[in-house]
Specification:
alpha/beta, 6 helices, 34% helix, 2 domains, 241 residues
């Protein structure tokens, strides 16, 4: 039976889901275009949506062009909210999808969406349904890689969910700097937004949120697959037009 496909093509992973009755199912990740194409070649689809933060690889582009009713998300696609970003043509599909998730869940609230992936993104949707923009910050692995790449002796450290405030050796000092620094950054950003936008709702997700979901001292809604959820909602909105 033909079904709808939802693809979130990120900088590191490709996430796939199927849409059924307004819900995601069969969510999975692929490390390469080849792995994805091998999997989707065994299925048939009646349409879907693709959100990509980069140019589609040639083979995937070819597959997309062979499909019917496939949406390639950009800022020109009809949306249920308004984009007030000054350079909408440069706005990543992931950030549009995140704003869509915020709108579907909390359409009458000021929502700050935080996504912790290769980069940490902050996106604000107002209670009036206007996407204003936000911020992009280096993700945790990018920070570890930068310290390793741009110094002579600092080693490559790995993220951890148990980080001391005071590092007791070089590795734990790097971990303290990155993990505690990211936590302080996010809490500080939330505090500044909350001081400017009444009754702010915070929605946070992304693969690296798993290291922080029990750390934050502020009230937030933690969720997985925020981009996929937003892509599904945009697809269904366009189908209803």
């Amino acid at each position: 039976m033909a079904q709808k496909i939802i693809l979130d093509i990120g900088n590191t992973l490709i996430k796939l889901a199927h849409s059924e009755s307004g819900c995601l199912r069969d969510v999975q990740s692929f490390g390469s275009e080849e792995d994805l194409l091998n999997w989707i070649s065994q299925h048939s689809y009646s349409g879907g949506i693709i959100g990509s933060v980069k140019e589609l690889p040639a083979r995937l582009q070819g597959w997309t062009e062979e499909q019917n009713n496939m949406i390639l998300l950009d800022a020109k696609i009809p949306l249920p909210f308004k984009i007030a970003y000054k350079s909408p043509q440069s706005l990543g599909a992931d950030r549009i999808a995140l704003a869509a998730t915020a709108y579907e869940r909390f359409s009458d609230k000021n929502v700050l969406v935080i996504d912790m992936g290769s980069c940490i993104t902050y996106d604000l949707l107002t209670a009036e349904g206007i996407y204003l923009g936000g911020a992009i910050s280096p993700g945790i692995r990018m920070r570890f890689k930068a310290m390793n790449a741009f110094t002579a002796k600092l080693p490559m450290a790995e993220p951890t969910d148990k980080t001391p405030l005071i590092g007791y050796d070089t590795e734990s000092s790097l971990q303290s700097g990155v993990m505690n620094g990211v936590q302080a950054e996010i809490e500080g950003v939330i505090d500044r937004y909350a001081s400017n936008y009444k009754d702010l709702t915070v929605l946070i997700g992304g693969g690296d949120n798993k290291y922080f979901d029990k750390r934050f001292k502020v009230n937030i809604f933690a969720a997985s697959n925020l981009v996929l959820e937003g892509l599904r909602f945009i697809m269904e909105f366009n189908e209803s037009q």
